[in-house]
């Protein structure tokens, strides 16, 4: 078994697309609409890991009522540089930086409140 992709149901696809491409540097793989009211975007990082963003206008009220339990985690080369970049993009750090045995990390949130951990491993 191997990992295929993670899926996040979003309220505003364009806002989420901009966040994941501009802030986390993911690239567009494909974008399509499988049926009326549903739009899907697949994004990919430099290692080929994929993230699926889905906006389904048919269940929008359900998504808005539900609190996300998802957290994504990415490794960064320099947490200091990443924090400066996040500040330039007006992205709030909601947790950390926290030092742990293997490195340090911060937590940010996407436009829908999905938590994203950004880790720098000890060198």
TrEMBL record:
Q: Which InterPro entries match?
A: Fosfomycin_Res_Enzymes, Glyas_Bleomycin-R_OHBP_Dase, Glyas_Fos-R_dOase_dom, VOC_core
- Stretches assigned to the VOC domain: 2-121
List the Pfam families: Glyoxalase (PF00903)
Q: What is this protein called?
A: Glyoxalase/bleomycin resistance protein/dioxygenase
User: Mind giving the lineage of the organism this protein is from?
Assistant: Bacteria, Bacillati, Bacillota, Clostridia, Halanaerobiales
């Amino acid at each position: 078994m191997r990992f295929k992709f993670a899926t996040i149901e979003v309220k505003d696809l364009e806002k989420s697309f901009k966040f994941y491409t501009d802030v986390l540097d993911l690239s567009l793989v494909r974008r399509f609409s499988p049926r009326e009211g549903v739009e899907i975007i697949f994004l990919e990082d430099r290692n080929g890991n994929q993230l699926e963003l889905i906006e389904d206008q048919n269940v929008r009220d359900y998504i808005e009522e539900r609190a996300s339990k998802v957290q994504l985690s990415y490794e960064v080369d320099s947490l200091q540089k990443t924090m400066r970049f996040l500040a330039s993009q007006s992205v709030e750090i909601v947790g950390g930086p926290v030092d742990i045995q293997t490195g340090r990390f911060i937590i940010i949130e996407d436009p829908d409140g999905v938590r994203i951990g950004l880790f720098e491993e000890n060198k």
